[in-house]
Write a structure and sequence with these properties.
- With 532 residues, the protein is an alpha+beta fold.
- It has a domain at 3-116 and 241-414 and 462-531: Poly(a)-polymerase, middle domain, CATH 1.10.1410.
- The protein is 38% helix and 9% strand.
- The protein has helices at 3-12, 53-61, 97-112, 116-136, 173-185, 222-236, 240-253, 266-279, 281-284, 294-308, 332-336, 364-387, 390-393, 422-436, 481-484, 504-508, 516-531; strands at 140-145, 159-165, 190-195, 202-207, 212-218, 314-317, 324-327, 347-349, 352-356.
- α3 (97-112) crosses α7 (240-253), α6 (222-236) packs across α14 (422-436) and α7 (240-253) crosses α8.
- Bound molecules: adenosine-5'-triphosphate and magnesium ion.
- The site of magnesium ion (MG) has 6 residues, from loops.
- This is polynucleotide adenylyltransferase.
């Protein structure tokens, strides 16, 4: 190989070299297989799931209620489990514990992926609001960005909209109140809030028919650009959607996903996972295929951002489709704003290099602790179940140790391929029209009524239906990454190097160069070393 791809992988992590390596087994303790609370006794790093009050809020926020009477659907019973994605989906017979976790991640994603009714309901909600905005302000248009325009929404996600107008004056305080009043008077909005003084003024409300939370911002196109960019990332990056949805749910269950309370927003999560996948040495060198290694990648994600990332000195850059980690001191806008050299997350906005999109995530300490706890819980659970008998494993969940999902019973169908998402269609049309317009005009308004009649190509994502038990032939790669990176042996750990670890990674990553017996021996040896 391929010196270039090796040195590329090494270069990606140079910025970490100054940070002390953290022993990832330091806090590892045994937990009971039967422990469904997800807590680890004595693990200070772990942030427990919320107590029952959060369930109420889950229901309030979530489209877990969507299948209710409003849409004429049968109300399904509430499931009495925190991890319903294992119902009728038992993977306890998987030989490789990492494959079990990967399959559970896929099941979770299938479980929370939208039904036909949910997509139709979201489409209808947008249509109604768009129509209302056009009626109030004939020269204005409402478009969708954020997770509905990228297919990265959980059942409870809000819909982010933006109103752009020919006159460009709708961000004014009177306009915000005018729209809020109009929607309320037409019974198209309840729980309306006008937030006029914020850096980005918005109105927030709940659309009464769907019970979906909606945010409307005004006179800006950056979100529409970001939606297109993120969709291109999703096309190019296997595993991105799955890991983003898991991390979102992980943070949601811990109330760490709300930017207003210092949590990590959806946009920051996407950027972190995108950078992680693009810079992961085993992916960069072609040793593994992310689609078949979601389990270990999730563990690695938790380890990197929970234990090893140098938040004081390192920033994440995802611009120009080439993610990288840079020194904060090399990001001049960050340095000038005092964000360099302090314990905070810095992610450069791909649409605006001066903007740190995670600057409001001031609760980084808890976010980091939660990720570190996720690593400990998952590795511990993997180890326990790996050494358990097949009989004892039946009905158990690995993923359920770190995330929960409560609410109305869902099915495992991903109906995104049956019903087109109108937010995506409209966003694609917007960009097509925009690309036809001369770009030297600032703040150009694209007239939405100028439809080009194109329909969205519905692509079947074939990898979702492949069997994990039959991994694809490796495209390249004859040596292990450790060899390629010149990592001598497990005892010489010093600074963080994600390849140089006596951890789950070296065994659980699906590595066709190691036979099943060797992998089994690894786990047994790990058990011995852990009991010392
Ligand atoms: N700090 C920020 N700076 C600039 N743009 C942002 C910022 N936060 C959000 N955005 C814009 O708003 C969009 C929606 O952000 P959000 O954090 O709500 O993510 P999301 O994908 O919609 O996730 P969720 O489903 O949790 O709402 C982003 O895609 C981005 O365009
Ligand atoms: Mg959103």
């Amino acid at each position: 190989m391929r010196k270039s791809s090796l040195s590329k992988a090494q270069r990606n992590f140079q910025v970490f070299n100054r940070n002390d390596h953290v022993n990832q087994y330091e806090n590892l303790e045994e937990s009971s297989i039967e422990d469904k609370s997800g807590s680890l006794d004595g693990n200070d790093d772990f942030i427990a799931f919320d107590n029952s009050s959060s369930e109420d809020e889950d229901d309030k926020e979530g489209q877990e209620t969507v299948l209710g009477s409003d849409v004429g659907e049968e109300v399904l019973p509430t499931v009495n489990t925190d991890y319903p994605w294992i119902l009728n989906h038992d993977h306890s017979k998987q030989r490789e514990i990492a494959d079990w976790l990967t399959l559970e991640i896929r099941d979770f994603v299938a479980y929370i992926s939208p039904s036909r009714q949910e997509i139709e309901l979201r489409n209808k909600t947008i249509r109604t609001l768009r129509h209302a905005v056009g009626k109030l302000w004939p020269g204005a248009d409402l478009q969708v960005f954020g997770s509905y325009a990228t297919d990265l929404y959980l059942p409870g996600s809000d819909i982010d909209c933006v109103v752009n107008s020919k006159t460009g004056d709708k961000e004014s305080r009177p306009s915000l109140y005018e729209l809020a009043h109009f929607l309320k008077s037409r019974k198209l909005a309840t729980q309306v809030e006008v937030i006029a003084k914020a850096r980005v003024p918005i109105i927030k409300f709940v659309e009464p028919n769907s019970q979906i939370h909606v945010d409307v911002s005004f006179e800006r196109t950056n979100g529409l650009e970001a939606a297109k960019l993120i969709r291109s990332w999703l096309e190019q990056t296997p595993g991105l959607r799955e890991l983003v949805l898991i991390v979102k749910q992980f943070l949601h269950a811990r109330r760490l996903n709300n930017v207003h309370t210092g949590g990590l927003g959806g946009f920051s999560i996407i950027c972190l996972v995108y950078a992680f996948l693009n810079l992961h040495p085993r992916i960069v060198t072609g040793e593994i295929d992310a689609r078949y290694n979601l389990g270990v990648l999730l563990i690695d994600f938790f380890e990197l951002y929970g234990k090893n990332f140098g938040y004081d000195d390192v920033a994440v850059v995802v611009a120009d489709q080439r993610p990288c980690y840079i020194r904060k001191s090399d990001w001049s806008d960050l340095r000038l704003s005092g964000g360099s050299g302090t314990f905070n997350l810095a992610i450069q906005d791909p649409g605006d290099p001066s903007n740190n999109i995670s600057r409001s995530s001031f609760n980084l300490r808890d976010i980091k602790k939660a990720f570190a706890g996720g690593f400990d819980l998952l590795t511990n659970r993997c180890f326990e179940l790996d050494t358990a008998t097949f009989k004892d494993r039946v009905g158990k969940s690995i993923l359920g140790n770190v995330i929960k999902y409560r609410g109305t019973l869902r099915d495992f169908n991903d109906d995104r391929y049956l019903v087109a998402n109108s937010a995506i269609i409209e966003n694609e049309k917007y960009h097509k029209r925009r690309s036809r317009i001369v770009h030297d005009q600032e703040d150009v308004f694209i007239d939405p009524s100028e439809s080009d009649g194109e329909t969205l190509k519905e692509e079947q994502d074939s990898y979702l239906i492949q069997e994990i038990e039959q991994p694809p032939k490796k495209r390249r790669q004859t040596k292990s990454v450790n060899e390629l990176m010149g990592v001598p042996n497990e005892d010489e750990e010093d600074d963080y190097n994600p390849l140089n670890r006596e951890t789950t990674e070296s065994s659980t990553l699906k590595n066709a160069t190691v036979d099943a017996q060797t992998r089994r021996d690894y786990w047994l040896n790990k058990g011995n070393s852990m009991s010392n």
